[in-house]
Amino acid sequence: MKIIVDTPIWSYALRSKKKGFEIYAQELEALIHDQKAIIIGPIRQEILSGYSDINKFEQLNRKLHYFENTPIVDSDYINAAKFSNICRSNGIQGSHIDYLICAVAHRVKSKIFTTDKDFTNYEKHIPIELYEQ
Predict the structure, then answer these.
(1) PIN domain spans which residues (predicted)?
(2) Which of 56, 67, 97, 124 has the smallest C-beta neighbourhood within 10 Å, fewest atoms?
């Protein structure tokens, strides 16, 4: 099974030197090694948006080229809107990108690897699965 790796995990692996975060970097390395890690365009954009230094940006962009973008199709946008409406009707707010991640994960039958607690709330109401280490 493929795993959509969300932005916070990439950020921990690429930038954080804090104690406790190395477990996420190690798990990401294992997923990459096993060729299970996948990415979608909006996550790639979020990762790259954190680098104003053009040299670091280009270096990271080259590394991320290893990962082909998992395509986003028209039905994903429709399902993302449905997921948003379902969650909102249950008192849960979320970002458009989060719901798009959920829609793509649902379509490609992928789990989502994230530390964003919002996804735990989404999972209670929409058909997604979170990746547990």
Answers:
(1) 3-123
(2) 124
Quick check: pTM over 0.90? Answer: yes
How far is residue 118 from each of residues 49, 54, 64, 97, 123, measured CA to CA in Å?
Answer: 21, 32, 25, 12, 9
Give the pLDDT confidence of 11-70 residue by residue, as tens digits: 988 876 777 788 999 999 999 999 999 999 999 999 999 889 999 999 999 999 999 999
For residue 128, which phi and psi values (nearest 5 degrees)? -125, 160
When divided into structural domains, the chain yields a total of 2
Radius of gyration of the chain (CA): 15
Pairing of strands 37-38, 111-113: unpaired
> Which tens digits make up the pLDDT trace of 93-102?
999 999 999 9
CA distance 87 to 46: 23
Does any domain span residue 55? Answer: yes
In angstroms, how far is the first alpha carbon of the chain from the final one?
14
